[in-house]
């Protein structure tokens, strides 16, 4: 019977990082919480709605608590220091990788604020926050983050879903969103829409999915089925002014600002989960083929090294965010690289485990499909490459040349 | 004199001291003051200034020369080989870093179809891939402890190979000028040749 690799990973510190006294316990705690995650992952892959049978997993409660503001947390036995560490951006990527190692589909299927919570944190006024978080804290609540549209894909800034004034001082929302996680099963969520032309004409609206005119359905995806990727149709959904997030803010500090705030942070979380998949696939091979011949071992060692380097860069980018330094180019780079590594590691595992490995190793078959989702979530690799290029030209991606080298280049 | 002012005659390129060979000599001096570091295969590779007596090998076109290591150099090797190998990766990264900036300048000055080459998405994507690889390998090279384990030689070789592959992409962005012996292609070749001598972990790693 195939070994799932857990035993070899227990307690192992993540290579490529230097976690401090605050983060090491978090990493260890997350590791302990992942018990049962793969069994739940198998069930959720069979039927994504089976997540409701696994809400008792400690990992789900921990993830929710970490993403709630402190005043709404119910510690439920989680140490306060660890919860606080898990709430930082660096903590988010540490938990993301550990839980991604277990099963990212379960994480994405779980209730909680997720990306919509980041939008609320970035934009909402005090009353909007109160209503949102009280609802989340009251019991399992699924949320969604509605940005992508069928005809626009990664060009979020060109979105067309319309927020139009009605005769009573309110608005109606009309349009379509596609590839939105959890939307077909959520109770509330954030929809990005256009009230006026141009980038500052974008608004973020907090919606209840029971509103008239809101309709969502699951889309059949190849993998990562726990994400419950959905299509949303908005046929004249009524919207009160109080549902517009941060409506008192200047236009440049709401809608689009909020979307970008979420995407930058969400991309780091996705990078961490994809790294978790890559590491899990590599460990799985080591566990099941402990005596690989030279070339095969060579290829596997190379994957391990690339993950360790990437982990260092992901942690650096996350620590920067915690210092309020958001380098979109570096974030895009690690997200695209993590998505690539997840795919490469799972493909390598299928190679090294031999013919029919996808039949003989059901866990590999699942993760082999799941890994592919990370390419298109929150910006494709192509988009991030162009962002890296822009950072390179602006001098924001690589460390600058030394003065001596710059002088030499200037004369070349 | 700047590194790449002209397509200088080979003899001149070999004697004026290009960027990479100069830095290679500095690395020898840093790791083994007053001496040269031997490779695991028993060779010494340095600039033609440091080893003028063996100029004439094709390596000389890239400012490099080699000879068998002396007994003293071989004796010192266990202590110097690992830091020298780590230093070679840092040097390779530094070379790539400056050539990347040169590539951007080069591409911004050339036009095709009414726009400069830097505006082409395919070119932007290639530059981004090189930059990402460089960021990764620089992070790896900065943490030499990552190489100190048993698998260090193999890890260094793989890092070298990743830099090499990114360098080939970078050289192509210079067009035919990327193939000039005294241009970026020549500098990258020098880094490849030095890596081949000093960083190759042995065929048992590859075929074992």
State the domain count of chain B.
Answer: 1
Largest sheet of chain A: 4 strands, antiparallel
Rg estimate of chain B, integer Å = 18 Å
Largest interface: A-B, 39 and 41 residues
**Count of alpha and pi helical runs of chain A:** 16
CATH topology tier name of the largest domain in chain A: Butyryl-CoA Dehydrogenase, subunit A, domain 3
What percent strand of chain A? 5-15%
- One letter per element, helices H and strands E, the order of chain B comes to HHEEHEEHHHH
What structural class do helix, strand and pairing data of chain B support? mainly alpha
As a percent range, the share of helical residues of chain B equals 55-70%
- Content of β-strand of chain B: 5-15%
Radius of gyration of chain A: 22 Å
For the record, give the distance between the C-alpha atoms at the N and C termini of chain A, rounded to a whole number.
Answer: 62 Å
Instruction: Supply the number of structural domains of chain A.
Output: 3
- Beta-strand segment tally of chain A: 7
Strand order of the largest sheet of chain B: 1-2
Mean pLDDT of chain A: 92
Query: Mean of residue pLDDT of chain B?
Result: 85
Oligomer: heterodimer
Structural class of chain A: alpha+beta
Which terms would index this structure?
heterodimer, A: 412 residues, alpha+beta, Butyryl-Coa Dehydrogenase, subunit A, domain 1, Butyryl-CoA Dehydrogenase, subunit A, domain 2, Butyryl-CoA Dehydrogenase, subunit A, domain 3, 3 domains, 16 helices, 51% helix, globular, disordered N terminus, B: 208 residues, mainly alpha, two-stranded antiparallel sheet, Acyl-CoA dehydrogenase/oxidase C-terminal domain-containing protein (chain B), flavoprotein (chain B), AcylCo_DH-like_C (chain B), AcylCo_DH/oxidase_C (chain B)
